[in-house]
Design a protein that fits this description.
four-stranded parallel beta sheet, about 270 residues, six-stranded parallel beta sheet
Length: about 270
Amino acid sequence: MNNKKAIGIFDSGIGGLTVLHSIIKALPAEDTIYVGDTARVPYGTKSVTAVTNYSLEIGRFLEKMDIKALVVACNTASAVALPKLKEAFNIPVIDMIDPAAGNAVETTQNGHIGVIGTEGTIKSGAYENKIKTFGQKIEVTSIACPLFVPLAEEGWIDNDVALAATRIYLEPFKRSKIDTLILGCTHYPLLKDTIREVIGDKIALIDSGETASLCLKEILKSEKKKEQETVPRRSYFVTDTPDRFLRLGKRFLGDEIDDVRHIDIP
């Protein structure tokens, strides 16, 4: 791999910016190119065929920009499109599910792991299926938390509404005795403090974006270390009007987004 090439990241919208935040933290000298498929969001309500085709189209767009790795910063795309993406591109493809599932299995002490995500991700069973490949004796309790996405986008992450919704959603975990919880949606890290307040300090939280960024760092470690001689390039593309992306971007990325370009895919 050429260490001068950028890392490509894509998501159905803005949630993947939390993954980009983790990548920048883990690999601060790397150039990055982010694509948000805002014209076709959400992916969770689309068919497997549609999501796979969308993912391949965006992957080809990023491939033309000569990236050295592709990060699928979308749990739905990770759940249904990963085999086709790995088959189509001759570069490392990092998804959200495999690294988080592996980390959760390494972390759990009592063999009971919880997963929260969108309805589409939970219905797919992707996390549970992957976790089971590490050990059939591991028990998995999965809960869909659909309100977390609009709460995160509205910025209602630590008010009474967010707290009430979190208490309702996570109540079953108190009975199930999990000791590890996977945040299986890229929006959910914004609600991490509220989730922690509800479930307490004894349950380990696994951020899928953080584990993916560490996986990427491990894959790229064989490269000659990139010197940070200049400010890394951060490029952003969206498939629909960039106004909302710009408005919400700082909340998810934790930093200003100066420029977003509109593209037509395919």
